[in-house]
Amino acid sequence: MKPEALEFSKRGQRLIGQEMFKVLERAKKIERLGQHVYHLELGNSCFPPPVEVIQTTIDALANGHVGYVPSAGHPNLRAALAEHYTEHGRPWVTENCFVISPANLLINQFLDMTCNDGDTVVLFTPGFPTYFAAAKYIGLNVKTIALESENGYHLTKLAIDQAVTQKPKAILINSANNPTGAVYTQSSLEYLIQQCEQHGIWVLSDETYAELCYRWPYWSLSAVDYSRLIVMSSFSKSYAIPGYRVGYALAHPFVASKLNLSCSTLFSCLPSFTQEGCVAALQVGETYLEEVGDYFSNMTEQCAEMINQSQILTCSVPESAFYLFIDIQKTKLSDHEFCQRLLQEQQTALTPGSSFGPGLESYVRASVSGEKEEVLEGIKRLVSFALQSKDSGPWLPSASSQLSKVGHAV
Amino acid sequence: MKPEALEFSKRGQRLIGQEMFKVLERAKKIERLGQHVYHLELGNSCFPPPVEVIQTTIDALANGHVGYVPSAGHPNLRAALAEHYTEHGRPWVTENCFVISPANLLINQFLDMTCNDGDTVVLFTPGFPTYFAAAKYIGLNVKTIALESENGYHLTKLAIDQAVTQKPKAILINSANNPTGAVYTQSSLEYLIQQCEQHGIWVLSDETYAELCYRWPYWSLSAVDYSRLIVMSSFSKSYAIPGYRVGYALAHPFVASKLNLSCSTLFSCLPSFTQEGCVAALQVGETYLEEVGDYFSNMTEQCAEMINQSQILTCSVPESAFYLFIDIQKTKLSDHEFCQRLLQEQQTALTPGSSFGPGLESYVRASVSGEKEEVLEGIKRLVSFALQSKDSGPWLPSASSQLSKVGHAV
Question: ipTM of the assembly?
Answer without folding.
Answer: 0.92
